Amino acid sequence: MKTVLHAIDTTGPGGAETVFVDLATRLPADKYRSIVLIRGKGWVYEELSRRGVTPQFLDAKGSFNWHYLKGLVDLIRQERVDLIQAHLLGTNVYCSLAGLLTRKPVVATFHGTVDIGEQERFKALKFGAVKLGARCVVAVSDSLREDIANRAQLRPGKIKIVHNGVDIAKFRRPRSDVLRQQHGWSSDNIIIGSLGNIRPAKGYDILLRAAALLKNSAASIRFVIAGQGKSDLYVDLLKLRSQLGLNDTVHFLGFNDDPAGFLSNLDLFLMSSTSEGFPLATIQAMAAKLPVIATRSGGPEEIITHGETGWLVDPGSPAAIAEAVVKLATDRALCERMAANGREHATRTFGIDTMLKAYQAIYEKLTQERAGPQTA
After folding, report:
1. What is the mean pLDDT of residues 93-118?
2. CB under 8 Å to 286, separation ≥6 — which residues?
3. 315 vs 14, more confident
4. How far is the CA of 136 from the CAs of 85, 105, 139, 257, 365, in angstroms?
5. Cβ contact 60:38 at 8 Å
6. Cα R_g (the chain), whole angstroms
7. What is the DSSP string of 16-31?
8. Distance of alpha carbon 315 from alpha carbon 200, whole angstroms
9. Of the candidates 306, 255, 262, which has an alpha carbon nearest to the alpha carbon of residue 284?
10. What stretch of H or E contains 127?
């Protein structure tokens, strides 16, 4: 049995955090012993606890935290870790350095370019550490693979693509009218939903401007957005909503811990992002058999075939989103075909078992090789 240390320095919720929790809790118990390291309490801690996992804590605050690195190395040695699985840039850097110090193989997973800020300090040094210390770098999409390979100057064989996976069965739910009942909406109202934390890359300002273009359309449309919203950006979005006269049309629901339940209330799913790695919410919506509108923002182009499994539009364009909404709102046959094709594609290609098997193949290969850094 191999011992795997799973580490991340964010507390969630989010797509990267969901994948982290799934990997840490769903690997075959007869093959892997999982040790889980997080920075503190939050959604990740609560979800791990719900699944019966008690994580260890180590805070990674600061631009470079020697205490965190030392604690990481001590944990690896104490628990006799065979392999380290890290997520997101900060943890990837620390774990790569710890892998060098302990001569343990490191898998460093990147989830999106949005997690690598343009103002990120010491970017070259950080990617240099990952290049030197990680035995395998995982990107969740092909576009992200190209970006990471260029930034870190990785040889082709060192970076792999593993698409994020979804527990498809969770999203096979019957339709729900909870939102209609809560808001007093009729069966004639078309409910369009978005799922994702309120961050600049989600493009919710663009969604609002698209909703404004649709105010006078023949269809009676309501927009609902599920995601954490305690930020200055959230306040700005509420102001914009008011300025556009959309207080009765667009509703921010806050954090939702039951995405399957939320999606079961929708008629159509909309992703308005300007940048995405490999959005779990899009796959979840397809698994829920919803027609999907998504922007060409990186990952969605690798998930959706335009007009077959979903509808793709250019990012940053309220007019393009509004046009797509009108198209799908008036073409039921198209919606039904895309929804059915989308679920079939998600089930066949993006199931959680497919993701887990891909990571296990990487783990098996690395733990069979001699531990230690490879030539980058």
Report:
1. 89
2. 292, 303, 309, 310, 339, 342, 343, 345, 346, 350
3. 315
4. 10, 8, 10, 32, 10
5. no
6. 21
7. HHHHHHHHHHHS-TTT
8. 13
9. 262
10. helix 123-133
* C-alpha pair distances (Å), 148 with each of 125, 126, 134, 154, 303: 14, 12, 13, 8, 20
Within 8 A by CB and 6+ apart from 372, the residues are 103
How do beta strands 83-87 and 106-110 pair? Answer: parallel
> What DSSP state is assigned to residue 115?
G
User: Cβ(105)–Cβ(114) under 8 Å?
Assistant: no
**Dist CA 243 CA 261 (whole Å):** 31
What is the distance between the alpha carbons of residues 109 and 23, in angstroms, rounded to a whole number? 12
Three-state secondary structure call for residue 57: strand
**Residues 91, 9 contacting (CB under 8 angstroms):** yes
Residues 6 or more apart whose Cβ sits within 8 Å of residue 101: 73
Q: What is the DSSP letter of 329?
A: H
Query: Helix (H, G, I), strand (E, B), or coil: what is residue 63?
Result: coil
Q: pLDDT band at residue 376, thresholds of 50, 70 and 90? A: very low
The closest alpha carbon to 191, from 155, 224, 225, 230, belongs to: 224
**Count of C-beta atoms within a 10 Å radius of residue 301:** 17
pTM for the whole structure: 0.90
pLDDT for 151:
82
pLDDT band for position 64 (cuts 50, 70, 90): confident
At residue 375, the pLDDT reads 44
The DSSP bridge pattern shows strands 83-87 and 56-57 to be: unpaired
In single-letter form, the type of residue at position 159 comes to: I
Q: Is 39 helix (H, G, I), strand (E, B) or coil?
A: coil
What is the four-CA torsion angle of 163, 297, 262, 236, rounded to 10 degrees? 140
Do residues 312 and 301 touch, judged by C-beta distance below 8 A? yes
Residue type, 232: D
Both structure tokens of 285: 């919506």
CA angle 158, 161, 165 (to 5 degrees): 145
